[in-house]
Amino acid sequence: MSISKSRRSLLLSGVSLFALLSMLVGGMLYTHATQAAGVNPDVLPNSSSSWVKSSKVHRVSHHSSPSMVTFGVLLSTRDQAGQQALIKSLYHQNSANYHNWVSADAFSNSFAPASSDVAAVKTFLTQSGFQLVASPDATLVLAKGDASHIEAAFNTEISDFSTPFGVHYGATKNVRLPAGMSRFVQGVFGLSDMKVAQSRALIDNNAGTPNAVPPYGGGPFGSGLTPSQISSIYDVKPVYSTLNTKGKDTVLAVYELSGYTKSDIVKYENTYHLGHTKVVNIPVLGGATDNTGAAEVELDIELQLALAPKTDKLLVYESPNTELGALAQYLQIAKDNKADALSVSWGAVCEFGVNSQVTIAENQIFLQMAAQGQSVFVASGDSGAYGCSRVGLLPPSGQELQLGDPNNQPYVTSVGGTSFQGPDGVTTFDPGTNPNPGYPGVAKELPWTDGCDPVNCAGGATGGGVSRFWAEPDYAANLTTGQYYPGVIGAYSKAGAYCGQQPGVLCRENPDVALDADPSTGYSVYCTDPADAFCKTGEFGQPGWIRLGGTSCAAPLWAAIAALDISKHGARLGLFNYLVYKYDSTAGYSNQFHDIVSTFTNGSGGTVTVTDPVSGKSVQQIVPPGYAANAGYDLETGVGTPDVYNFIKS
Questions:
Q1: Which domain holds residue 614?
Q2: Strands (E), 65-199
Q3: Model's pTM, two decimal places?
């Protein structure tokens, strides 16, 4: 239910806001995990492949391939209450432990699974005939075996399915573990080869049609905003000149599920006179299996370098695009603890399609990153309020409004999108070839909304909304006054059962911040990799320069802003949500942030016709509209877009 003004008074009556915040810090984020643990001590709930239940897939046969499968058993970290207390001590300014980040070894010493539990898992696997393989961390025990041995050991079934993306295999039954083991096992991953994450990069709708893409910005052929233009629009150049930093003494990283062409990065740097940064590939579980998402990888790297060209090193983590690959990569990044700031532009488009074991596993890894002071920026998605629509899913009636994952996570900064063009297609601001255009004003920066509905989102729109899984942490409130910042509790807010929490507990809201993300007013990117459809054809009659958008672009730019901030302060700054929400105020919007306000919503709602997967009959479904960009914090653009110089110097 929406929290209207009357509902807000009920929310806060009887239980003070500080009490609610204390419950959050004390472990309310883990309600789902504790509920799941008590269902059946031998069976892992929700451990089958969730996608096999979709009406879009059909079983072909039993999976009988003799090839070896690498899978992993992820163990739960210990002392969740202690982890919450650690986060509170690290991020509350009145704490003696404020910003005293822990090392990866210290975190492991305090919270890693008991050695006896790890040994029990390894013994079970070896006695079942599996071969143990090297793992990035003790919390993940990796092994190899064929499908028949996996089925026998975990009492599950693995079948092949025909899907819109080809034939893939997945587990059709929840896995069963030896008695007592489910107490400390978070999940078993690798029993499916379905790609689990989508790139959040978009190209202009007119791309591919000769001479149909109107030029924008100063990139070659009008291929979008250049580094000089981005840094001018969002007031980064005084950071370079006055604060004298371009990211020196920092390490940036990108999270990737595809390979790329490294020479393209050099071409981008040379064209825009950025110098040359050391770019290091770090493969996880053998690295990416193809280069079909090269445009995503290259835009992530190039846009980080666009604003932080003097970062000491840029790490490109790569893994297979599977549940196991995705989780193992996050774990490797946390274990390495090398990246000061990280951007993630891959994810599941809606919570409805995400296995709860996956999102809980991600959560324990992101909490570790937050404790280590790593700043993580995640694209909020490109399907407006209806995250499932881009992959052809429609949740049950009443659940159409969806966030994606991992942007729903409490310990990341979710980055939404804006545009310098209205949904009517009229451009409000184009710097042309001017290298120093300046910010055009909030009247010309609008939320990115190209007309998404529950069954179609071809044009794209900034992701935003309310999580159905996680609670809102205390960074959304002023810890001195005990009040949420303006706009955080509003007409669209939800609480309690909506996200599986106790009554009165506010649900996690997205996004936290924003930047330009519309491909029509997007960024100049160089990519020639023939495995990627965007790069192979290009927009302007030849491979190479393309104009890309999507919240995929906004996330790496925010990671670069974090690098500039870290460089200026000479120390890691951790989870940026604790820094940005305080600017959701009159003073903040006159200096550090631009308050993006509009009546345009990120989803049209209305009545849609869908096919009932059980009866096969067509039924009409009434869908609520998306969210609007209100004054102050909102569920389209978060706190807003930054004036980077004023933000960093404050």
A1: 198-464+511-649
A2: 69-75, 131-133, 140-145, 158-163, 166-171, 185-189, 198-199
A3: 0.92
Q: Are strands 375-379 and 413-419 parallel, antiparallel or unpaired?
A: parallel
Please report whether residue 633 resides in a domain. Answer: yes
The residues that bridge with 402 in the sheet, in sequence order, are: 386
Rounded to the nearest angstrom, the gap between the alpha carbon of residue 482 and the centroid of all alpha carbons in its chain is 28
User: 351, 362 in Cβ contact below 8 A?
Assistant: no
What is the amino acid identity at position 581?
Y
Parallel, antiparallel, or unpaired for β 413-419 and 513-516? parallel
Domain contains 139: no
- The Cα–Cα gap between 3 and 7 comes to 5
Per-residue pLDDT tens over the stretch 382-440: 999 988 877 777 788 888 899 999 999 999 999 999 999 998 889 999 999 999 999 99
Paired tokens of 575: 């989870």
Residue 543, in any domain of the structure:
yes
Q: Does residue 420 sit within a domain?
A: yes
- Average pLDDT, stretch 192-216? 76
Domain count, the chain: 1
Q: How far is CA 536 from CA 197, 262, 518, in A?
A: 22, 15, 21
- CA angle 32/576/570 to nearest 5° reads 135
Query: pLDDT by residue (tens digit) across 125-152?
Result: 999 999 999 998 999 999 999 999 999 9
CA atoms within 13 A on the CB side of 153: 22
Q: Which amino acid is at 136?
A: P
CATH number assigned to the domain comprising residue 396: 3.40.50.200
